[in-house]
UniProtKB/TrEMBL annotation, chain A:
Family designation: Belongs to the VEFS (VRN2-EMF2-FIS2-SU(Z)12) family.
One of the GO BP terms on file: chromatin organization
Species this protein is from: Hippocampus comes
Bias-annotated ranges (Acidic residues): 659-687
Protein name: SUZ12 polycomb repressive complex 2 subunit
Ranges of compositional bias, category Basic and acidic residues: 649-658
Biased composition (Polar residues): 345-357, 692-701
UniProtKB/TrEMBL annotation, chain B:
Keyword Metal-binding attributed: no
Phylogenetic lineage: Eukaryota, Metazoa, Chordata, Craniata, Vertebrata
Reaction it catalyzes: L-lysyl(27)-[histone H3] + 3 S-adenosyl-L-methionine = N(6),N(6),N(6)-trimethyl-L-lysyl(27)-[histone H3] + 3 S-adenosyl-L-homocysteine + 3 H(+)
Molecular function terms from GO: chromatin binding; histone H3K27 trimethyltransferase activity
Residue intervals of the SET domain: 591-706
Pfam families found in the cross-reference section: Ezh2_MCSS (PF21358), EZH2_WD-Binding (PF11616), PRC2_HTH_1 (PF18118), preSET_CXC (PF18264), SET (PF00856)
Protein name: [histone H3]-lysine(27) N-trimethyltransferase
Keyword Calcium part of the UniProt annotation: no
Compartments, as annotated in UniProt: Nucleus
Amino acid sequence: MAPHRHGPSAGGHPVTPGGAGGARANGLYPPSSSSSDSKKPNMQVVQADHELFLQAFEKPTQIYRFLRTRNLIAPIFLHRTLTYMSHRNSRKKAKRKSSKVDNLLFRVEKMQGDQEMHGLASNLQLTFTGFFHKSGQPSQDCENEQTSVSLEVLLVKVCHKKRKDVSCPVKQVPAGKKQVPLNPDLTSPSGAGHFGSFPSLLVPSSEFETSNSYTVKSYSLLFRVSAGKRPYGIQNEFYLCCQRYKRRSSPLREDGENTLVAQMTVFDKNRRLQLLDGDYEVSMQELTQQCPLNNMRATWETILDTKHMPPLKAFCDGPTLRFTLRWTSEVCDGSTAPVAKPLATRNSDANRESSGPTDRKPLHAAVKETINSDKVHTRAREHVPAEPRPKLRIFYQFQYNNNSRQQTEARDDLHCPWCTLNCRKLYSLLKHLKLSHPRFVFNYVPHPKGAKIEVSINESYDGSYAGNPQDVHGQPGFAFSRNGPVKRAAVTHVLVCRPKRSKPSLSEFLECEDGERQRLRSYVGGLNRLYFRSDSCVPRPPQEMDVDSEDERDPDWLKEKTAKQIEDFTDVNEGEKEIMKLWNLHVMKHGFIADHQMNEACLLFTELHCAHLVRQNLRRNFLLHLVSMHDFNLVNTRTIDQAMARLEAAAHGDKQPAEEDEAEEEDEWETAEEFQMETDQEPSESEDPNRWQESQSRVLN
Amino acid sequence: APIPPPPVQRWRRRVRSEYMRLRQLKRLKKAEEVKAVFVSNRVKIEKQTSILNGEWSNLRIQSVPLSSSDGPAATKKMCTVESGFPGFKVQAVAMRPLSTVTGIPFMYSWSPLQHNFMVEDETFLHNIPYMGDEVLEQDEAFLEELIDNYDGVHGDREGGFISDEIFKELVEALNQYSDHEDENEEEAATAAPTEKKEAERAIRRSSTEGKIPSDKIFTAIASMFPYKGTMEELKEKYKDLLEPPSLVKLPPLCTPNVDGPFAKSVQREQSLHSFHTLFCRRCFKYDCFLHPFHATPNVYKRKSKEIRMETDPCGADCFLLQKGAKEFVDQNMLRSQRFRKRRRHQLQQQQQRPASASCPGPSGFAEESKDGESDHETTSSSDGNSRCQTPTKLRPVDDEAEQPASCAAEWSGAEESLFRVLHGTYFNNFCSIARLIGTKNCKEVYTFAVKEALIHRVPLEDGGILPQKKKRKHRQAAALLTASALSIPDNSSNQVYNYQPCDHPDHPCDSTCPCVITQNFCEKFCQCEDECQNRFPGCRCKTQCNTKQCPCYLAVRECDPDLCMTCGAAEHWDSKVVSCKNCSIQRGLKKHLLLAPSDVAGWGTFIKEPVQKNEFISEYCGELISQEEADRRGRIYDKYMSSFLFNLNNDFVVDATRKGNKIRFANHSVNPNCYAKVVMVNGDHRIGIFAKRSIMQGEELFFDYRYSQADALKYVGIEREVDMS
């Protein structure tokens, strides 16, 4: 569906994920031109139309393809962390809430304890249901002579290499031999019912203990089935290799019997238990000369490749051995088997192993898990219309050439066509399209078969740069000439944003009105620009960002101006001018606005300037100023008295060296304040704190 | 010998050469002045630069090393200069390309301001606006029309203009000439004995200062500059020009500095006159930037309860322990009460007289004393000299020599003035007065007061008769007066008028009160009673005052810190967090704004912190200009396509072109995130910019230029004209 000029014209063949033009795969239906009912169109018209189509959608698609690949390599975020993709997140919040660091340790300890218990206290009980071999085995054969095959079970111990050893020492401990029914009819009541009638075998727990001087690295079970004159045989992994190197004169090879072999790991190298209780079906393989497993580094992948039979097919008709595995503490009683919990790491390991000996248990678990999560999500999003599970077809309708033309493509899954992301829900898909691919406009139209999504080019797409402005505006001399750590401009991206989310509903993707579009403001806000100083238009260095030039109420020029204005009076004497200037600067600095602030303003003025007033011999002028303020009904006589007393005190202090005045003065002021605080504090401490706060605020006001 | 040219022509030539010489001198002098200013500015700039450089060096940032980024390829490219002359080598230097710097939008310089600033109308066009290099025809027409709006353009009459100063100097220079010339003439004609000439010259020289030069000079000048008037007129003018220097030296109305050595004993009103007249009761500043005239204190409104009488003696030597002191005090208390009542009456009388109505304060006192004590009026001296009372009181103050030991001590002029000032405030609380005067004890004060009480009936100042007006050089507030007086309120329309404190002591605030007419509330600055019906009562809110529940908010007023005592507007002066959200403009609780190139056009304003809906962002500050001035300026701004004009009310416009704050860069939008609201803030209309919705950090700010919330406010030059028609 996604247009690509150089891509193959026909869709439908599988393409490796990650390759260009991949969206053409995955069940996308080839574009049906213009409208579905059109008759066979002229080839040229189709070509021209396609050209227009490409013109419109090619560029953004290429961009999103590129971004998809980039995000795969270096993800900026994980889709599962998005709210609308939360179903992709397998972790449960409930679990996280209760999690503690201590629990981690506890869990590990418990896990180890479990293993130990398994390793030491439990016996491995194997009950064989039967050996199945359909295709190769003529049924007549089995009827007349072979109703059973002989099975030999060996416990293979791979030990740690010692210094002198060339390769890992391997020990084979025969666990027993049994006759296993061949192709038993499990559907018949006789066959199915008698569990106890099946041959059973017990590997004692002592076998799993460390033996001799060797520490065992891993244990595995080796099943060897020999059926008359048609020997099968295969061995797995390094066991076989070792065998071939070490035990060249193996008797089973020489006698030319047909031997089928399979191996399963019980404890792996890390001493993790790999086989839990359950029913197992093991695919047996013939041990032949062509077996390529002579390579030491053979892995399951290489083995797989050489097999001509796909793994699953092996279970359909290949020779398989079915058995029930049980860990029992006692020899006879099978019911008291310890219930081993699947370990966290188990799943991935099981997947890896599954290609060779495939067990069923993990599969079950996986299915169960998805069901669980589905339940959770349906509960969480009740308002999402339940999607018809079986067949949801999504029609993408591409509108181009000024919406005059359109093409429709459909696909059956909920993968995003641009990033192949499996959204798993229609709501999530739409939300993803809308948010991750803003170069397009998506409109949702309900459709009986599923959904129709109208795709058109977003004409008002804002592709402006939202990164660090310092990088773009490249102030020469800043970015590349740092001398030690330098504060950079802060670039803000809102990472955690919890806007009021409306209940998810598909209706939000319907064609939106203008009012709604307004709501869709970008969430990447912040101070992502280069700012300039308002006075000089010089770029602001980042360390200056917190300084507001407007914080000062009295810019220098205004201070100069008021002084000059007063100086310009011809009929005001120098003393008056001086007081007026000082007072104006004082008022401008502190920004007094209320009449009842004036008493304090006068006292503060006295405190700040008394030394200056004394030095400049402005005492009487100041008194005139105070009286004038009193005439304006702004101060009371008490303030006049206090202010003059303060000035008097400063004047007497002035007899001492005048230089020390100001420091001295400030000290006095401080002590005075402290004193006030102390006196206020003392009685309050014994009483309730509210009183104290009250008194505090009284002092401050 | 060459025949001398006829005297008139000779004089004319002299006038011309002298005039040229003087002009040359003037030019040189001016050039020197400019140079001196330039040099001093340079020094200032260098100082500032070194401070800035110091700051930069502390920032741990290095400058780019030159040519490091160029690489070897760039250095290979050489730039050569060749000259055609032989012997001069071709000069070459490696080319060093500089990296490009992203350009920034254009900006005219402006001055930062956090509060509106009132300026007078400009009747002269300061400069002809630059309209680009090519003068288009329509521009020319526009300029002509523009110049018609003004009285003139700055520097128009430069050529041929003869200023008073030049005229005077010219006459003086020619006067010197004439002596010499006369001499020569006489010498040539009569060859008189030289001794006599010398003597004559000496006499003449000595007398030149006071003597009016000969008519010949004026005739010559008049013929050279016919538009300056006839010979007689010029002569008169010259005589006038000789007069003023003596006057300039001693401004008639200036009271000597009380703290200075020449302090005089003057009346209370005179001592306080400067403080009373210049103090702005609304801004708490002297000669504020916002209010053209300041009401003088409303004396009779003073709270009487505050003046408490100290009945207890202040010490062992207190005057109260003297015989008859208490009686005197009591008697005077009664008298002063009567005195206040009478004064009020007088003030009312005086208001009815148009002449003194403009300046009620200072004249009130003086008139009262004159009229109230009418039986002694005959003794008051009526000549203008009475300011300096008696010669003995003119004696300079000698603080050190003056000892309080002598009880009948000499009172300096300053002390006497201070006593009168304080007596007006403290009345007979002589202990306090003595403490405040500092150099006299209360006994001395008491004795002086007794003496004053007697003197009080004798000669009094009549300084108040002439309405004293504080004058400033080159400044006239008349233009503003007319501007505000011109707006005739129209009750029918929903208009907003500027508030002026009302002052009509003879009647309460009724339909004739200017506040009522302009549909404004009376404010605390009005001279009316506190109980006035037109007063706004303030709010009693205990919440945030940001809903229409709050009467202040409803009336588009900010809470008055002197009226609204419960909402928090009157508290927490030091913190930025106030419970009342309706006092942000007065407190300047603006948000931090940033300047960056706009996403729309030119520069833009960006907000640094996120704000909630309806939160205050910034005040739109600028020059406060009259509507007429705004019309004139707006014409130029419209031509430039960039206007910072913002209509404030029917009388005034805020122009942020020359002075303003960062919000001036906020662009216009029809879908803005901010809105503007004109709010009455303690008697001033101010423009607040508020958030229209919640705004995120870093967003650019927009508001709708045309339709602010106050619908009455119209965009200058567009809607207003429609309104008028």
